[in-house]
Design goal:
With 332 residues, the protein is an alpha/beta fold. The chain contains 14 helices and ten strands. Helix 5 crosses helix 8. The radius of gyration is 24 Å and the shape is elongated. The mean pLDDT is 90.
Length: 332
């Protein structure tokens, strides 16, 4: 799209080779370019001082992870990013996690593969025959799950992902509560949800999922006291940031039987150790940080990125910018 618009485009680095360039390689690759589109290379002070960049566009939702935004701001370089690029796949994944733990889908699949629900040799024919009877140990009785309709779903965080999750939860007929101190009640209401205080959400919700970034004000926001407020048998999903929950309090809630189910795509230590106790619980679903790994993400982020750059080239001001003060200083 940029080439069609008449711009010269050079490619290289992680996005094309899968290998992250070191500082000197990166500087050489950038050369005399005016615009940098970057994934995971480190945009350091040295990189910024050694090049002549006029604008940086990050494919990531959190560009500060690898870009010295403060120094870029000091040099008057705007930094754009693809805000919300993974909202749809993460929202879909969240509801998949909810169904996995409330209906015991992952557990039942694993047990069936392992032969848990198979008959002893010769009792019902071959040893591979599956027991579908209605006794207490059979899957129909022992793997019952809850229905979604009428349940209360609590969302902690109501950004691009939280809004999409709310839409899907409403589609299941659930009542949706939202805790997000930065969102207006009318915005939450527009999605068929209700804005409440955190403690009210914790007490009322049958299912709780996290969709916020970690900062100094919310790190460990759900700890021992907050878990005590929750319903017995509550289901919890976190594919946002592990630091939103106190790790020890989460583990204690799981050990005590407080949680009906837990689904995690993020961990306090990544990758999770193979001997972690979380693997021992049949009501826990663990995935390796893949909630945003949708097949359409690359296409979507590319369209977002190019549209923002074309708007910038035309004299406009794209909204997803990390350092808007650069434009403010220029009166743009």
């Amino acid at each position: 799209m940029l080439k069609v618009a008449g711009h010269t485009v050079r490619t290289g680095g992680w996005g094309f080779t899968g290998e992250i360039l070191n500082e000197d390689q990166f500087i050489a690759e950038i050369g005399n370019a005016d615009v940098l589109i970057v994934g995971y290379e480190e945009v350091t002070r040295k990189v910024l001082d050694s090049t002549h960049l006029k604008v940086i566009s990050s494919i990531r939702g959190g560009p500060r992870a690898n870009i010295d935004v403060d120094y870029a701001t000091e040099k008057g370089i705007p930094v754009f990013f693809t805000f919300g690029r993974e909202a749809l796949p993460v929202a879909d994944f969240t509801l998949g996690q909810v169904l996995a733990i409330t209906r015991k889908i992952v557990r039942a699949d694993s047990e069936l593969h392992k032969g848990v629900f198979t008959a002893p040799a010769g009792e019902f024919g071959s040893e591979k025959d599956v027991i579908w009877d209605m006794n207490a140990e059979g899957p129909w009785q022992s793997r019952k799950g809850i229905e979604m309709e009428g349940k209360t779903y609590g969302l902690i965080g109501f950004g691009t992902v939280g809004k999409e999750v709310a839409k899907r939860a409403r589609g299941f007929g659930m009542n949706v509560l939202v805790y997000d101190p930065y969102q207006k009640a009318e915005v939450v209401a527009a999605y068929g949800a209700t804005k409440v205080e955190l403690n009210d959400l914790l007490r009322a919700s049958d299912i709780i999922s996290f969709h916020a970034k970690v900062n100094d004000s919310n790190k460990g926001m759900v700890g021992k006291e907050q878990f005590a407020m929750m319903k017995d048998g509550v289901y919890i999903v976190n594919n946002a940031r592990a630091g939103l929950m106190d790790e020890q309090a989460l583990r204690e809630a799981l050990r005590s039987g407080k949680l009906g189910g837990l689904a995690l795509d993020v961990f306090h230590q990544e990758p999770i150790k193979r001997d972690d106790e979380l693997f021992n619980y049949p009501n826990v679903v663990l995935t390796p940080h893949i909630a945003g790994a949708g097949r359409d993400v690359i296409y979507l982020q590319s369209v977002m990125l190019v549209n923002d750059l074309l708007l910038y080239f035309a004299g406009g001001r794209p909204k997803p910018i990390v350092n808007p003060e650069v434009f403010d200083r220029k009166g743009r």
